[in-house]
Amino acid sequence: MILFLSILTVSSKGQSEQIVRKVVQVMTPQTFYLNGGTRATFGGKSRVTYQITLPPNTVEWYYAFTTSKNENSPTHIGLLAQLSRLFDPTGISAIVSNAITTPTGAGVCDIYLMDRNNAQAFSEKVDNWGGRYYYQPSGSRENFKQGTVQIRDIQNGNWVLGFRNPSALEGINVTFEVVAIVEVTEPFR
Predict the structure, then answer these.
(1) pLDDT exceeds cutoff 90 at 96
(2) Total of domains in the chain
(3) I want to staple 164 with a disulfide (CB 3.0 to 4.6 A). Which of 32, 85, 110, 126 is the partner?
(4) CB-neighbour burial class of residue 146 (10 A; exposed 0-12, middle 13-18, buried 19+)
(5) For residue 29, what are the domain limits?
(6) Which positions ≥6 away from 13 have C-beta within 8 Å?
């Protein structure tokens, strides 16, 4: 998908201002280990949630993730640096979300973008007992090893990313990072 970024020049009280888009770190890289479902029964977790608070004036946001089998090997994604390099605040260039690279993953992971109430049901594993939780399909992925997810339809508020290891036996290490593109007003230069 291609995103065309634009700058709008406005005049207010004789002073020219422009609206520019900037890349903002929402969540620094996080690394955690998820046990397989059977092992989690005897200690550890097969699911974990992280709250995402979108900054004001978010236009779109991204999260990138990767997995590995080794419990003690955090992986560097560098989403902020990659988006900063790809991003042109003048709006002349476009970001192609598949131009963002993530290290090759080694185990599958399910990631669900949810509100707080559904995140609680997710954490309590209500789906294991016939219950349900709901998530935003545009920001969720199932059975992925790595990737970058671009979210344009949710631009404000507090959300939760829920990570689940779908394997019954094998554990996985997960690393992820969240970055937003926001619009800000600055004096015209």
Answers:
(1) no
(2) 1
(3) 110
(4) buried
(5) 2-187
(6) none
Query: Is pLDDT larger for residue 90 or for residue 116?
Result: 116
Chain position carrying tokens 């997995």: 67
What pLDDT shows up at residue 14? 52
Question: d(Cα 97, Cα 75) in Å, to the nearest integer?
Answer: 20
Q: Say how many C-beta atoms besides its own lie within 10 A of residue 172's C-beta.
A: 25
Q: What is the mean pLDDT of residues 142-158?
A: 95
CA distance 117 to 109: 22
| Alpha carbon distance 121, 130 (integer Å) | 12
Residue 44: CB atoms within 10 A of its CB come to 13
Q: Where are the beta strands (DSSP E) in the chain?
A: 2-4, 8-12, 15-34, 47-53, 58-68, 94-96, 109-114, 136-144, 146-151, 158-164, 172-187
Residues above pLDDT 90, as percent of the chain: 56
Looking at residue 20, its pLDDT comes to 83
- pLDDT tens for 117-130 read 999 999 999 998 89
42 DSSP 8-state letter: T
Whether the per-residue pLDDT at 144 is higher than 90: the answer is yes
- CATH code where residue 86 lies: 2.60.120.380
Nearest to 177 by CA among 65, 11, 20, 44: 65
Give the distance from CA 182 to its chain's centroid.
15
